[in-house]
Specification:
Strand content of chain C: 15-25%
Bound molecules: adenosine-5'-triphosphate, magnesium ion
Structural class of chain C: alpha/beta
Order of helices and strands of chain C: HEHEEHEEHEHHHHEHEHEEHHHHEHEEH
Largest sheet of chain C: 6 strands, mixed
Distance between the termini of chain A: 70 Å
Oligomer: heterotrimer
Radius of gyration of chain C: 22 Å
Chains: A alpha/beta (about 325), B mainly alpha (about 650), C alpha/beta (about 350)
Helix content of chain A: 40-55%
CATH class of the largest domain in chain A: Alpha Beta
CATH architecture of the largest domain in chain A: 3-Layer(aba) Sandwich
Strand order of the largest sheet of chain C: 6-7-8-3-9-10
Number of helices of chain A: 12
Shape of chain A: globular
Distance between the termini of chain C: 22 Å
CATH superfamily of the largest domain in chain A: Periplasmic binding protein-like II
Chain lengths: ~325, ~650, ~350
Amino acid sequence: MRGRKLAAVAGVLAVGAAAVLVVGSAGARSKASCGTVTLNEQAWAGSTANTYVAKAVLEGMGCKVKITQIAEIPVYQALANGKTDAVLEDWQHVDQYKQYISKQHTVVAGGPNGVVGHIGWYIPTYLMKAHPEFATWKGLKGKESLFKSPESGSQGMFLGGDPSYVQKDAQLIQALGLNFKFVSVGAEPAQVARWSQLYKQKKAVIFYWYTPQYLNTEYQLSEVKLPPRFKGCQDDAKSGGNVKQYKCAYDNTIIEKVFSKKFAGGGSPAYPVLKRFSWSNQDQEIVAKWIAGDHMNPDKAGKKWVAANKAKVNKWLGK
Amino acid sequence: MAVAGAAAQSLPSSLPAPWWRGRPGAAVLVVAGMLLSYFGWKHHWAWPAALEWNSFSPHLDRFQAWLSNNRNLPHPNIAFRIFNGFANFLDDLVSWLTRLFYYLKWSGTTALGTLVVLRFGGRKAALGTLAAFASFATLGLWDNSVQTFALMFAAVGMSLAVGMPLGVLAGRSATFNRAITPILDAMQIVPAFAYLMPVVILFSVGPGAAVVTTMIYAVPPAIRITALGIRGVAPNTVEAATALGATRWQVLSKVQLPLARRMLLLSVNQTILFALSMVVIAGLIGGTGLGDAVTNGLYTDPAFAIFAGAAIVIMAIALDRATEAMANRTDPAQRHLTAHKAHVLRAYTAACALVVVAAVVLGHVFGAGTVWSRWTAQDWLRTYVQRALDYIQNPGTFLFRNLTNPTGNFLVQHGIQPLRTFFIETPWPATFAGLVLIAFLLSGLRRAAIAAAMLFIVGLVGEWANAMDTFSQVLVATVLTVIVGLAIGVWAAESRTVSRVVRPVNDVLQTLPQLVYIIPFIYLMPVSGVPGVVASVLYASPVMIRLVQRGIEDVSPESVEAATSFGATRAQVLLKVKIPLARDAIMLGVNQAIIMVLAVVVIGGLVGSGALGYEVAQGLQRNAFGQGVIASIAILALGIALDRVTQGRGAAGARSES
Amino acid sequence: MSTSTTGAKRLGSSSGNPLIRAEGIWKIFGKNADRVIGTADAELSRAELRTKTGCVAAVRNVSFEVWPGEVFVVMGLSGSGKSTLVRTLIRLIEPTAGRVEIDGHDVTQASRDELLQLRRHTSSMVFQHFGLLAHRSVIDNVAFGLEVQGKSKAERLARAGEVLKLVGLEDAANQFPNELSGGMQQRVGLARAFAVDPKVMLYDEPFSALDPLIRRDMQDEVIRLQHETGKTMVFITHDLPEALRLGDRIAIMRDGRVVQLGTPEDLVGSPADDYVSNFVRDIPRSHVLTLRWIMREPAAGEADGPTLDVSTTVRNAVPVIAASERPVCAVENGRVVGVVDKEAVLMAIAGEGD
Ligand SMILES: Nc1ncnc2c1ncn2[C@@H]1O[C@H](COP(=O)(O)OP(=O)(O)OP(=O)(O)O)[C@@H](O)[C@H]1O
Ligand SMILES: [Mg+2]
């Protein structure tokens, strides 16, 4: 007896579902020329800026734009089987390039996006002013205890970066013979919380940091110079080996774009536009600041930048 | 047998022995021994490289590359096509559901949800559901909520489709049950981060992969509770049906399933809650909706992450109450339908269906949006949340300077740090032997043997130091959890007001994604490890509180009456009667708490807890598959060891008795 | 009482083939149970066996036959193996060894299908804790056996209605088990067993969970039903008065063995051992013993006194014997088989209580 009522409810639902399918399939697919482009946005603000500016441009051409949010490494699998079309900011995942671009040919390189990333050791500018010797790493020697924290004991604390980022600081500290304890506080928001808290108290802190980053407009930070690069110097401690091979400053990172093979070879008018997409560190920082710092709606931010930078956009559009 | 023998020997004979002659004394001796070796030989005996299996990790990496290469061929082999087909099916399922909700418009979706709950769960639950929909709209997260809801629906449906049949099997066959229990344990202890990458390779990314990830976590409760329900059907009814010549299938369909209906619905309820706790992680591999809002919000807009977290909690609580109400109402032994009632109910169902259809039609006629976007209070709420966050982020406040910061520093300097040093630097044979001996004292020979094996595995995969680091954090968090849980649990058992206040708080703490409540503590107690520890205490305390409360409330009134009749004061009754009698429940609480703490300390790797959790997180995010798997194995081994050790002798004794 | 020994009894006839034949049944619970039988361990006491092997010998080498129409009672203290024994008859519990035959079919060798047919059509069982289905109304409970057989809904509801009338529950047809008293619930259990019209009814302590007055009622009910339908019954109980009231023959079990098997008179009149005599000590012998038990060969010329049927209990015979000057003649099938005098009656009554 109950069963019948359940069946009645199920019936109503089924009719509804069927209606949806009919309507849904009739409504989709207009604009056959460009279709839908799927961009992947990553968690940091710079990536959001790229994605939404590109979105504004593509929508201006009449494309539909979908946005996925998949983490940096898994997104390669998504590119490989066409679940997402483009990643506009990739910090040189060499292993993935080897596997997906060179070996499987399921992903294609899209060239630099114009932004140059730089990783380094940073301290607050007020600290640099008080201790000009910190301009190079040698100045840190013997002064490590200035950076003491509850978890570093008698050593100084070096605040490591997000575990997902390229880094070699623990090895570098060892190679340079500095009396720092490498402390990782985890993901970027936690790391920012940690150093910004100390920054606000005008205390001493040294940490892994990078540009471009919208927070650089909010906090005054200065870089500590590390030993110069030499041939064969490594940046990613993942490869292991002797610590000596890490004893140099981080290289500048050319930020790349990568595309799904399907998208690149599919003749979409969006592809050449995204391939030409390229802007500067300053451009990106401005948009990122609007979105992350001022909580502007990302769509609005993208449109705002596009409206204000016609010349650059026209170049991407090939006009 | 051996366990029983050992237990019998160490049991006090007729005269009560002084404590130092008993097990506590032995435990103190063991700890003293460990301390001695720490001071005598610290640093000298790290886990030897000879006992490590180093080539395991590269093997795993190569395996992953092989998988990926073969999967992404233009024409992958049949196995990968099956995985592909399954992933596509799940993708379609989720997108159908999403489109269904969009088609219904916000008006129809609300009507459908509310009326289904009204019809099967009653008025109170329906009001809750309506309020939940309203709050999604208010928070400005209707779209995300609908997406998450579609994802949940698919994941829960699939989990039940897999879990219930297996649960029925496990309920009917003790052998099968025994065989799958360790697998289910593993599925729940291994952090989701660890299997995210293999899932991505096999199922690619997107809603389908998110559903699979969620299923791995949500299937075990579906199986367990279904089995419990089947086993809970009185054996004599089953026997009666068998005696009348019912086939096994008839017994199942006509007796066991109908009689277990309440438990089956409860398993739906638990599956939903477990699935919801995975939305955030599912967001990392393309699950859309609230999960995404949390992770991305964390980086760029914490206030938004908090809203999304709140929406998840609201969804969880509404679904929990709704399914609980439905489960209670359908208890076959409680509710009987007469023909008349059935007729009325049928009319009621029809009316509800009509209202839903009307809502959909009206929605279309008046051009209602697919989602609610007209008026939200997000901006208004944001000013308050942001103000609170600003306060929290400001290191100049009284709260920070005098309370949270010193507390955090204290925890690190006098809790986590010394313990970590102790466990890592004590010669490993001493740590190893000490832990196993303590396991033996607490839980008997068999479990001590399991603990020893697990600790050895931890060392073998080369994670000894990291595991000891994680272990010290777990220890600190568990001690705090037990203190908090005992205090609040006892209080709640003794005072109805407190109990009424505590329940909703517990619900929120258990369903709020851990990453969300870690946020404030990142600012308030900015020392590595502490946010993770605090978050795990917050996460595990509810269970401890509940079990302590239930244990104390379940103490038979006769015992209390007897004590009172001898003139015992309330405090004496509590200390001498209630708490001792509630010991089993409290032990169970410790056991559950320690596993939950472990789970969160691992997630804490994202916010500075380091150690195994860090390894796993990095394994996923930097594509070091081998590293991630190895750390996961270490976590699993540590979890099993901790679980067995804290199961205690009570269970061991009972088992060898029967 | 008077009806018990005359009415329901003696319907069984020991002629023809037995309906149930159980030969050498063993049931040992525990690992490697089958290795115990045939070794010296099998002769150990239950406690010794348990400490030695961890096995529990619930039923040990039990054999009996039940004749059509007979009420066969198994009785013994709690834990003596009664429930296990009755379950092995239809293999709800697999016997470890032994052979069971019901209605000419070998149950122990039966395939799963044959076993189902046997359970569906030949036997049915009534349980101590009723075993009713809480999610079904009374009438659906009663119809369950027929439903399992695949009978149509109309057919089974019609039959269930009939049987409910038989047990006097026609008004409760649409109620649910938890709305009924214990006695009523067991009537439903009875009706459910009757509904399939089995040849053999198995009762496992059906009335132990009921209070004494209701138990009395239910016993009357069983007697009446048995009377009306002539079913063969195997009835488990731990209550001696109940056993005596219902049973044509009674098997007394102790620690898994049958220590005595006989008519109520045999048990009361000549208990096989202390265990049995302890049981029957408080039973008024005059209520159980019949004239057959105390009569003697008629001396010459004694065969002309007042006559009584040989199956009359002593108690019922007392008024006649007391009123008669001469010894009373016990008659069976119109033939005088013995005589009973006052002295014999007094002896029988005097024997009570020791
Ligand atoms: N499944 C089982 N496993 C192990 N031992 C069992 C099992 N079932 C019964 N036993 C043992 O077999 C013996 C006989 O049990 P059974 O239930 O047949 O006794 P009973 O005479 O029916 O008792 P009661 O009057 O209490 O119902 C008992 O010692 C019991 O402990
Ligand atoms: Mg029994």
